[in-house]
Amino acid sequence: TYDYFEKRNVPYVKPVPFFGQVLSFFTQGRHAVDVASEGYRMFRNTRISGVFTLRTPAYLVHDPTLYKQMATKDFDHFTDHVTDFRIETDPILARSLFFTNGAHWRQHRSGLSPAFTGSKMRSMFGLLSKSAGDAMGRLLVFAAGKPFTMELRDLYSRLGNDVMTSISFGVEVDSLTDRDNEFFLKGKRLAQIDGLPGLKFLMATTIPRVFHFFRLSGMYKDVNEFYTDAVARNIQLRETNRINRPDFIHLLLQARKNTLGAEKHEDEALQDAGFSTVKEHTLEQKMGEGKMNWADIDIAGAAASFFFGGIETTTTLLCFTSYELAVNPDIQERLRAEIDEQRESLADGRTPTYEVLQKMKYLDMVVSEALRRWTPLGLTNRKCTKNYTFTNTDGSQVTIERGQNISIPLKYFHLDEKFYPDPLRFDPERFADPNNINQDAYVPFGAGLRNCIGSRLALMQAKCILFYMLSNFIIKPDTKLTIPIVIDETSAGLNAKHGFWMNLVPRSA
Ligand code: HEM
């Protein structure tokens, strides 16, 4: 087993017998993304390296151009993600876009894509902005004109939950006041990837046979039931009362009736939610594959994947952007000046529109740099679905065999000084001229046909919340904030060990 890479002339991280690289997760106190990307630091002159998870070999891609190629031109060889959930034990996760594979993924993705176009995002933007604006109003009342201390991860995950609940289900919740509402609590359990759920995810990825043998599930039973019931009740309510609201359930019901289309002209003008927006590729229809039949449970799976994929990541982006703004007051002031200038053009001087956010160049530079410096999803993966041969840097041929797992260290591309000089410095100026950015090595939302479906939504949401925050508050580091920030190495996502404690000073104070 352990001579797998030697035989193939691929450099690899020497495994600990039986455990492979997995032991380091538990013994070295390093972040899972860093442990999995170890080879990237060790071997500088290769396009790929090897690693063992327990006894299973897996590849780590070092060359962003190779990843782009695998994800686009040679996509047919890498159509799947690695985690394998089963419908019998994980009815929701197995139907969610991130975890579904093969023909079902193709049908699901082409069915969902028209729900994420620029024009759909614009019509949803009113709901998003209202939800964030209402929450900001409550925060101002709470402040009563005086500075106060707040942990921003908690604040942003509550705002993110409320926005997502509104644009997915058409239900308005207020998690700042009603702190234990069911959508917030279940959403938190759904997205929990630390502790026991994290271990189960790791098992489903690395030892799927053991995972399935014991009929384990990745998601809590009550969370499955919650989303299934919430969607079924919501659909029934809409159909009985003929409710028409520009949210995801509405769009998915249109998909069910085959009436969900894309408004090509409008979309062309609205494609760009910022430099980081990824391109949506057209999936070819395969012979005999047909279209997706959207049963209620498929709609529940899609909605749950938005909560699962969208809230933690967008919250992470907002937390680290706020941290950088707090420790770099000159950048914060410049961004606030841009926001204030745009506010003058707004009817009420307060509520941002989709178009206004799209126009804001410096806001986009700040967000793009935050996604680079603090990549929310530092590692993604693919499964090889058809043997694939390419030439390595030393001229040797490498063949990745069908069934092999591949990791892509997005974080390490972004922190490589080859692509970004002085990579640990937060410097929005890098994005002043997009021509200076190596597009292959800038992949916060992944690449190719299986990239993030929600990039436009994430960017518009993060920008909208930052617009409101800086319009109303000056963000200052609180005494409880650790500078430089200390990363929580035990979290499966990207988080601060001691929290994002900030002092929010109302601008009217
Ligand atoms: C800042 C926020 C976000 C970041 C950084 C992010 C990042 C990513 C990345 C890196 C991937 C994997 C791409 C690949 O394997 O090449 C992904 C996939 C995905 N994301 Fe996001 N994401 C964010 C927000 C969202 C939002 C708001 C949603 C939903 C509404 C979402 C839904 C998904 C889904 C469903 C997938 C799987 C796509 C597929 O397999 O076809 N994400 N995301």
TrEMBL record:
The keyword Transit peptide does not apply. GO terms for cellular component: endoplasmic reticulum membrane. Its main location: endoplasmic reticulum. One of its GO terms (molecular function) is heme binding. Keywords: Endoplasmic reticulum, Heme, Iron, Membrane, Metal-binding, Microsome, Monooxygenase, Oxidoreductase, Signal. SUPFAM superfamilies: Cytochrome P450. Heme binds at C452. This is Cytochrome P450. It comes from Anopheles coluzzii. The lineage of its organism: Eukaryota, Metazoa, Ecdysozoa, Arthropoda, Hexapoda.
